[in-house]
Design the sequence.
């Protein structure tokens, strides 16, 4: 029925294997909007779009002697899709990344495939169970509302929560896929660390661009020069 009626399928599913299953018979494009504990690629696009606006130099090769970023991730990349996709997409910018610190209650939060890709990218990584210990050295902090531990989800405890009194590096930024619980205090909303509102705002444009790319509609966009010649009165008529 999708093949008959649709031009594209956007699917979020609780089963990690759902994309593989539907692709067995699907003949039209599929956009993965989250598959169980697997991945969330469109969220990662929004995450890195926000970071590229924050630091456009990430899109270019690093200059000799430039300082590499330290990424801090709260969660378990091996079993949380947004965290995993953010980390995997960070490998596209590996020359700008000095170290990845994962804050988790699990001793091995990565998953074997993630470890292999980090090692291949020659990125140093470590695991800790207390975010405050590492805050002064982190340039980017990626947060989540819940942690996957064992075979169930639970809220972050006090060791994983941030507020305006947390020892955050002055130049650091915070990302969060939202919605949040109490792990990210509203006292940070008006601070320079807040990149999560920009992250959410940009997600709209990223997904619009993705749809246009998948459906081959970029050529249908109006030329910028043509837009500048349109007057307010002519556009309303």
Sequence:
């Amino acid at each position: 029925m999708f093949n008959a009626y649709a031009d594209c399928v956007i699917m979020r599913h609780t089963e990690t294997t759902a994309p593989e299953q539907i692709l067995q018979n699907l003949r039209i494009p599929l956009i993965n909007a989250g598959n169980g504990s697997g991945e969330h690629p469109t969220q990662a696009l929004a995450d890195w779009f926000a970071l590229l606006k924050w630091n456009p130099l990430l899109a270019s090769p690093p200059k000799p002697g430039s300082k590499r970023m330290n990424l801090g991730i709260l969660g378990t990349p091996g079993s949380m899709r947004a965290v995993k996709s953010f980390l995997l997409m960070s490998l596209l910018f590996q020359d700008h990344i000095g170290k990845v610190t994962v804050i988790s209650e699990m001793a091995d939060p990565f998953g074997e495939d993630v470890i292999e890709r980090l090692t291949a990218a020659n990125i140093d990584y470590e695991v800790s169970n207390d975010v405050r210990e590492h805050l002064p050295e982190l340039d980017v902090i990626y947060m989540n509302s819940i942690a996957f531990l064992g075979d169930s989800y639970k809220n972050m405890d006090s060791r994983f929560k941030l507020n305006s009194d947390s020892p955050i590096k002055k130049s650091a930024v915070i990302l969060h896929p939202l919605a949040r619980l109490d792990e990210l205090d509203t006292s940070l909303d008006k601070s320079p660390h807040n990149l999560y509102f920009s992250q959410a705002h940009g997600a709209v444009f990223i997904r619009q661009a993705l749809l246009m790319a998948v459906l081959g509609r970029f050529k249908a966009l109006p030329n910028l020069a043509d837009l500048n010649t349109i007057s307010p009165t002519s556009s309303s008529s």
